[in-house]
Specification:
The strands form two sheets. A two-stranded antiparallel sheet has the order 1-2. Strands 3-4 form a two-stranded antiparallel ribbon. It has 16 helices and four strands. It is globular, with a radius of gyration of 23 Å. Helix 3 crosses helix 8. Keywords: Amino-acid transport, Membrane, Transmembrane, Transmembrane helix, Transport. One of its GO terms (cellular component) is membrane. Pfam families: Aa_trans (PF01490).
């Protein structure tokens, strides 16, 4: 058995982001409630003035979008074929950008009124009733799923570094029987440490670094595929994807096609955190001398930048990967070893994935979960010192930090929970497809469209109303089919899998 080598320098590299100078908390709700924000450095809602810009918002979106999903797109195109695969990639991009613009316009209610700093607040302002609870269930359920998916992907990347070195030293047929579980545990330990930082709103550069990591490993995957194509390695491709009776059975073709649609949907799943990203954008309502545009305008531009950039990378990565491997495209372009050499470049790409996911897990995905629970508990038990009191402590390397015992316990328990679930269900493509299917329709399509209809007071049975309802219906059908395909894939994987045994 080969020993798994995890380059802990990447862990230290990530930890160095969080120096004492960067330990400032940005929590609008707590600032408003406590009245501790002093001077004129306040926003229109009484909280500390936002500093987000078009660049940081775009970086947040790219960090959320160009993530683990990009690695499965060549496999998705292989299931669907050139026609359906590329059409779905472009269609999802258009739909996501269209509905994101609607959601951005709903950030304030009415149009130039009160801020709604979370997705649930937006739904409460425009729709109310049980839809608020449904929104919370969909949003936080999908965020939980994404933390699990990120844990799976990061562990695969950690192990792939050891595999690449083994294959380089002993040949591509060498036996490498190492479990993913130590890597998952290592990722969980890193997240337990990082989760204790109160929040990351002021660490916008972390998203910029994570976005650079995304570009790096996406570019490496695309470049390696292009190099193989240039050398004459061309896979067997079809307009309609895998061939029934040759590559797959009829039932496998059906279910895997649905699962592939879910994977593509997951690759655009950033609406789940769009409102939280917009809540960080600089406000000009109390600054009459500023010429900066309103938050919704900035957010719309950021969405265009983020989605168009992601789509370009997706099409390149997916199509190059499919052209190179054909129907045999791996489920994960880098870690399933479609490429073996140069091994050092593959190591670097997998390290980039790990660094990106370490940052994205905290910066984009987990923070809304943490803050939702903590805000609820603070409101329910305001007199509890365990929940509300902050303690100043000097920590080696990090300096003076604020420690809250409830935050310490709750966030640690959550990270352990997501890590254990990832260990039980370490099935990359099926998990991605299911998360995409569950999150895409309600958060990306249904709620933005319904709130847009309410905001603009669009009358029933007009052409615009009918068109929007048709969009909702079509996307619902796609999401349901994708969910079914992913569930079938999970069931198939679970039947042949023993929890807490080696995956190899």
């Amino acid at each position: 058995m080969h020993r798994l080598y995890i380059d802990m320098s990447f862990t230290l590299h990530c930890l160095c982001f969080f120096s004492p100078l960067n330990m400032k908390s940005f929590d609008t709700s707590s600032a408003v409630e406590s009245g501790t924000v002093a001077g004129n450095n306040v926003d229109d809602d009484g909280g500390e003035k936002r500093t987000g810009t078009l660049m940081t918002a775009s970086a947040h979106i790219i960090t959320a979008v160009i993530g683990s999903g990009v690695l499965s797109l060549a496999w998705a195109i292989a299931q669907l074929g050139w026609v359906a695969g590329t059409v779905l990639l472009v269609s999802f991009a258009v739909v996501v950008n269209y509905t994101s613009r609607m959601l951005a316009d709903c950030y304030r209610s009415p149009d130039a009124g009160t801020r709604n700093n979370t997705y649930m607040d937006v739904v409460r302002a425009y729709l109310g009733g049980r839809k608020v609870q449904l929104c919370g269930l969909a949003q936080y359920g999908s965020l939980v799923g994404m933390t699990i998916g990120y844990t799976i992907t990061a562990s695969i990347s950690f192990v792939a570094i050891g595999k690449a070195n083994c294959f380089h030293d002993k040949g591509h047929g060498a036996k490498f029987s190492v479990s993913n579980y130590p890597a998952m545990a290592a990722f969980g330990i890193i997240q337990i440490v990082l989760s204790q930082i109160p929040n990351f709103h002021k660490l916008s550069f972390l998203s910029i670094i994570a976005a650079v990591m995304s570009f790096s490993y996406s570019s490496i995957g695309t470049g390696l595929a292009l190099a193989d194509l240039a050398s004459g390695k061309v896979g067997k491709t079809e307009l309609t994807g895998t061939v029934v009776g040759v590559d797959v059975t009829a039932s496998d073709k059906l279910w895997k096609s649905f699962q592939a649609a879910g994977n593509i949907a997951f690759s655009y799943a950033y609406s789940v955190v769009l409102v939280e990203i917009q809540a960080c954008i600089f406000s000009t309502r109390n600054d009459t001398l500023s010429s900066s545009p309103p938050e919704n305008i900035v957010m719309k531009k950021a969405s265009i930048v983020g989605v168009s950039t992601a789509t370009a990378f997706y099409i390149l990565c997916a199509c190059m990967g499919y052209a190179t491997f054909g129907s045999q495209a791996p489920g994960d372009l880098l870690t399933d070893f479609g490429f073996y050499e140069p091994y050092w470049l593959i190591d670097f790409a997998n390290a980039c994935i790990a660094v990106h996911l370490i940052g994205a897990y905290q910066q984009v995905i987990a923070q809304p979960i943490f803050q939702f629970v903590e805000k609820k508990c603070n409101k329910a038990w305001p007199e509890s010192n365990f929940i509300t009191k902050e303690h100043s402590m000097n920590i080696p390397l990090l300096g003076k930090c604020r420690i809250n015992f409830f935050r310490l316990v709750w966030r640690t328990i959550y990270v352990i929970f997501s890590t254990v679930i990832a260990m039980i269900f370490p099935f990359f493509n099926a998990v991605l497809g299911l998360i995409g299917a569950v999150a895409f329709w309600p958060l990306t399509v249904y709620f933005p469209v319904e709130m847009h209809i309410s905001q603009k007071k669009i009358k029933k049975y007009t052409m615009r109303w009918i068109g929007l309802k048709l969009l909702v219906l079509v996307c619902l059908i796609v999401s349901l089919l994708a969910a079914v395909g992913s569930i079938v894939g999970l069931i198939s994987s679970v039947k042949a899998y023993k929890p807490f045994h080696n995956l190899d």
